Amino acid sequence: MTKEEEEAEKNRVSKLSDFKKEQELRKLNREILRLNMLRGINTGELYTIRGRYKLLLQEYGVPMMVWYGAVWLTTGSALFVLAEVGGMDTMAVLAYADQYTGFDMVSRVDPTLGKLGIILILNELLEPVRLPFVVLTVKPVMDRLFPPKV
Carries keyword Transmembrane helix (predicted)? Predict the structure, then answer.
């Protein structure tokens, strides 16, 4: 786009009402999504898991990361509550791990921090379940929280 074309477009847009600007932005966003879809079809990316995930990130971006963070915090909090209510003995878990690894973590780890560490490890072990859950649910959740403006 040349400078003259850019200035002409700025001038045109400055004369639009807020409603007309919103309408035009919605139309442009739909066109961008359509073009990204066509690009995915032409390159074959649309037919791979990686390509679909990439398209999902392009479409939802930050909201998807926020949703992932919320799910991560929820699972971590649930594990923490279960550990507290269930009375998880951190030292027993570490002693069990020491048997298999040959390390002496029991004597070096504070029980409170050890509990948090074990909860973080358990939370990360849930990743193979959490990530597909987030990918499968991000569209319905975001559409419900932020209905698409057509």
Answer: yes
Residue of higher predicted confidence among 62 and 148: 62
Position 58 scores a pLDDT of 77
Domain extent at residue 32? 1-47
Residue 89 lies in a domain: yes
Query: Do 43 and 65 belong together in one domain?
Result: no
Q: Which of 4, 27, 150 is nearest to 12 (CA)?
A: 4
Asked if 133 and 71 touch (Cβ cutoff 8 Å), the reply is yes
**φ, ψ for residue 146, nearest 5 deg:** -130, 85
| Stated pTM of the model | 0.62
Is there a single domain that holds both residue 120 and residue 79? yes
Domain tally for the chain? 2
Same domain? For 68 and 40 the reply is no
Residue 134 burial (CB count, 10 A) = 19
**Distance from C-alpha of 68 to C-alpha of 132, rounded to nearest angstrom:** 10
Return the SS3 of 34.
helix
Separation of alpha carbons 128 and 147, rounded Å: 29
